[in-house]
Amino acid sequence: MTKQPDPYDEIERLMREALVQVEREISEQDCNDVAEYIEFGEYGVAYELLTCVLDKQQRVHPESLKTAGKMMGMNS
């Protein structure tokens, strides 16, 4: 019997990937805050914060962030 992949594992992977892609474009504090939310499984809060920061700075949202958002039922 094959174990189904946990969607939260994939969301976490995508969120971490997105953060790595934009970490040089956002403040260290914002980066640390997003990383902490991801660490504690608060993916929705991490998503909202990261999209807000990127929007404020008029930065493009990484595809991994968009995909994670879709998996959580949120729009990027």
The string of secondary-structure elements, in order, is HHHH
Q: What are the low-pLDDT stretches, counting only 5+ consecutive residues below 50?
A: none
Percent range for β-strand residues: under 5%
Task: Tell me the structural class.
Answer: mainly alpha
Protein name: MafI family immunity protein
List the helices and strands and how they pair.
Blueprint: H1 7-22, H2 28-39, H3 43-56, H4 63-71
Helix pairs in contact: 1-2, 1-3, 1-4, 2-3
Q: What do these coordinates show?
A:
It comes from Paraburkholderia youngii. There is one protein chain. This protein has 76 residues and is mainly alpha-helical. It has one domain. 67% of the residues lie in helices and 0% in strands. The chain contains 4 helices and no strands. It has helices at 7-22, 28-39, 43-56, 63-71. α1 (7-22) runs antiparallel to α4. It is globular. The N and C termini lie far apart (36 Å).
